[in-house]
């Protein structure tokens, strides 16, 4: 009779959330500046798969001339910001 493998809970399906959890768990030491930057520039913003998707959402909301898209250095997804890139 073969042994069953242990039950592994399924992943959340949100790649950015999984990546963020890995980063927080495996970093060498706490850095409050990085934590603040991650919260400001990533975790508090909507994630878009690519630049076209981010721009489309800005245009649909009538904010195409005010919001700019950028690729996040922390999660790899795209976000919108008011700062020109």
Order of helices and strands: HHHEE
Output mean pLDDT: 79
Strand adjacency order, main sheet? 1-2
* β-sheet strand percentage: 5-15%
The count of β-strands is 2
Please compute the radius of gyration using only Cα atoms: 17 Å
Q: Which regions have little confidence, pLDDT < 50, spanning 5+ residues? A: 4-10
Task: Give the termini distance in whole angstroms.
Answer: 61 Å
Form type: elongated
Number of separate helices: 3
- Domain count: the total is 1
What is the helix content? 40-55%
Biggest pleated-sheet summary: 2 strands, antiparallel
Structural category is mainly alpha
What is the topology?
Layout: H1 15-26, H2 32-43, H3 51-60, E1 68-71, E2 78-81
Antiparallel strand pairs: 1-2
List its traits.
two-stranded antiparallel ribbon; 40% helix; elongated; 85 residues; 2 strands; 3 helices; mainly alpha
What features would you describe in this structure?
With 85 residues, the protein is mainly α. The chain has one domain (15-81). It has three helices and two strands, in the order H-H-H-E-E. The chain has helices spanning 15-26, 32-43, 51-60; strands at residues 68-71, 78-81. The protein has a two-stranded antiparallel sheet with strand order 1-2. A hairpin with a 6-residue loop joins strand 1 (68-71) and strand 2 (78-81). The longest helix has 12 residues, at 15-26. The radius of gyration is 17 Å and the shape is elongated. The protein starts with 14 loop residues before the first helix and ends with a strand. Residues 4-10 have low confidence and may be disordered.
């Amino acid at each position: 009779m073969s042994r069953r493998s242990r039950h592994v809970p399924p992943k959340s399906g949100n790649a950015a959330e999984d990546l963020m959890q890995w980063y927080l768990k495996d970093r060498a030491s706490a850095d409050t500046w990085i934590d603040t930057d991650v919260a400001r520039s990533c975790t508090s913003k909507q994630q878009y798969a690519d630049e076209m998707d981010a721009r489309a959402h800005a245009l649909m909301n009538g904010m195409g001339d005010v919001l700019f898209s950028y690729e996040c250095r922390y999660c790899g997804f795209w976000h919108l910001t008011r700062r020109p890139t």
